[in-house]
Amino acid sequence: MPRQPAKATQLADALALQIENGTLKPGTWLPSWANLAAQHGVVISTVRRALAMLADRDLIELVPGRGAIVGPSAGMTRQASDVTRQEGAWRGFLLSVVEAGAEPFTDTVIRDTGATAEIASWLAVPIGTTVVERDRTQGQMVDGQREPLQIATTWFSPQITGELPILRQLSTGPGGMYSRMTDAGHVLRWEDTVTERVATSDERSRLGLSRGAHVLLIWRRCYNQDQRILEATRRAIRSDRSPVVYRYE
Length: 249
What we know:
This protein is of the alpha+beta class. It is built from eight helices and twelve strands. It has helices at 6-20, 33-40, 44-56, 92-99, 117-123, 158-163, 176-183, 201-207; strands at 60-63, 67-70, 78-79, 86-87, 90-91, 104-114, 130-142, 145-156, 189-198, 214-223, 229-237, 244-245.
């Protein structure tokens, strides 16, 4: 292995000492490369080499498009059963984040789209049927910065969006879409199909993943008491940050 320049090694050792003595705690984002270069009187290429050395020692993680974080961040373990519970305004993923002591965030885009063959099969509608799509990037705040943990995309059956126009709105109220369905008299049941695959370029960009990283993929279909399909949701999850726990009683 080529010998690292002395300045890069010195900077890596200085930062490693701060990590090991607790000055830089796990989950802390390091300053930008430019700020680190200015603070330590080196050029940016030296910072780049030093951070690569720290990553090789597993002391930091380099997150594309975001920077460098000390050790693994706390992440968030999700209980799959949270979809069935509402506490105050929270339900599902957001409830898991709140109960873990963090602040959740959601960015939502709503659009009409034609059902692809895959979506049509999940909703049991003809291919090309116009359906409402809710596309969310969700995560938690860590040291004032956003940590995206999952992309949740929901497609609704035309019948349920006709019955509940609020599903087209950015805010569906306390407890979200499932609580609105329950309010309308639907007794909800769910089924999950869990797989994994390599993240797409869009998922890498939105979740801060490197090329070749995998995501946990959960397709969830929601039925009512009449076995009518109300919606299907695909979740692409950072499994290294947000493991999902299934508990049976």
